[in-house]
Write a structure and sequence with these properties.
The chain is mostly helical. Helices cover 70% and strands 6% of the residues. It starts with a helix and ends in a 6-residue tail after the last helix.
Length: 250
């Protein structure tokens, strides 16, 4: 699909190119490694005493937000790559993108392992200033619990994904466009498409976890499935990069 669109870009109007970018972004969100990465984040939900309807609404909203934040990180990196390549004329070798794809494989293995353990990789501590009546100012570091997460991890994961195969894909597509404005607009539309697609996927993944939030055994099985998928996909990516593509030139 992508190759066919690239071949036809020269005959397309800017509006059609933007629509194509949105469609490619939507399709891009459905790649297995993207879904696996987000699933490991969506699966970490605590049981609560609210009604099933409220839990579904809450989980779907939070799960969709995780997908949007992943897409935002993904888009940020792609836009940065676009600026480097097309605005600053920086040449990025394809091996660099392949190397980052290997990093994605490692990241998925770690995410899968942490999902099995129901733990987080990034434990962000936030520091908030506090002013006393006498004017003394000091800070309070604290960790954000599940319900107060700021989405750092999903955003970072999206950024890493944007540096992998996605980077070379967008550079390849954008290179066939005429102007810098059109190139950067295409990348942004592509990113919006991936954000929307990932929001839908994440929301759907969150549904079974919402239904089983208070059924510990079933919820644990679902978490293990998400972790296993991430582990297997991560191992496969590393194998493909190291052995098939001979990353290290051995």
């Amino acid at each position: 699909m992508v190759e066919e669109l690239i071949a036809q870009f020269q005959t397309m109007t800017p509006i059609i190119i933007m629509v194509a970018g949105l469609a490619i972004g939507l399709e891009h969100a459905f790649e297995a490694d993207h879904i696996a990465a987000v699933a490991t984040q969506v699966s970490k939900r605590k049981s609560d005493s609210i009604s099933l309807v409220q839990r579904i609404r809450k989980n779907v909203f939070k799960s969709s937000l995780i997908g949007i934040l992943w897409g935002a990180g993904h888009t940020t990196t792609l836009f940065f790559v676009g600026l480097l390549v097309f605005a600053l004329s920086v040449h990025i070798q394809n091996n660099i993108f392949i190397g980052f794809e290997f990093v994605v494989g490692i990241m998925l293995v770690i995410l899968g392992s942490m999902t099995y353990l129901n733990k987080s990789i990034f434990k962000f501590r936030h520091i908030h200033p506090h002013i006393h009546e006498d004017g003394t100012i000091h800070t309070h570091p604290h960790k954000h619990e599940d319900e107060h997460k700021h989405g750092h991890k999903s955003y970072v994961i999206g950024c890493v994904h944007g540096l992998a195969g996605s980077g070379s894909l967008v550079v390849l597509i954008a290179s066939s466009l005429g102007s810098l404005e059109l190139i950067l607009s295409f990348i942004l539309i592509f990113g919006i498409g991936s954000m929307f697609g990932m929001a839908v996927i994440s929301g759907l993944i969150g549904l079974p976890f919402a239904f089983t939030a208070n059924i510990a055994k079933v919820n644990r099985i679902l978490r293990y499935v998400a972790g296993s998928a991430s582990l297997l996909i991560g191992i496969n990516i590393m194998y493909q990069i190291v052995i098939v593509k001979n990353l290290f030139g051995i």
